[in-house]
Write a structure and sequence with these properties.
255 residues
Amino acid sequence: MFVFQIEKIKKLNETEFQIYNYLADHMTDVSQMTIREFAHLTHVSTATIVRFCRHLGFTGFSELKFYIMQPNQVEPSLESYYANFLQLNAFLKGLTGDAFQEKLSQACQMIESSHYTTFMGIGTSGALAAYGYRYFNNVGIQSFVITDPYLPIPRDSYQQSCMIVLSVSGETSEVIEQLDRFKKNGAKIISITNDDASTISKMSDFNFSYYMIDEFAYTTAIKLTTQLPVLALLEIMAHHVKTESVNQSKKLSSI
């Protein structure tokens, strides 16, 4: 089974989605086709196929075919009971990329330059916010947590703080309203969401999105979307800030 990064799939247009759906249903057949044959069967031009491949991160159709012909490296038994295994694997690999490391460094500098850090979230995200608050304090970073979306925000409070806001959808109205108050008071915002196109993501100074497949319980009101990426991001941030703080202290003591 092949897997593409969800953030790339979300950016496909309607025509490209039709191509993607055909590819997903006829992977073995497509791996044996020429680009003209694939274009004919999907009712598009060869140029459209090339653009489709590039939007998925490939240089062209040949590289796409090479990718889907590779033997499966993931045990089928894992996929069968955990739909997000492949996406989680792709997310963790992305943590070593230059783009992520650069954004991480900038976000952590903002945390370090703030007087304190405040975590915010409700529901499951509230539980994770409490975990982040505890973990940051454990490594020596002064932190607080807000899990009540109706907590009064005094004027001029949180001016020198960095807010780390957790939300799967990034569209929770109560959190958005609180976030607006924090921004008006001058707080800096880092958000961790499942989608970088969400309202909370766009309101933030820095956003880290993890693009997992949404999973639900017996009702769509209760999400079961994996939060393992959130735990990873919180712990990575804490250790990064702590390491930079120790390194800075060593430099100052050597002067």
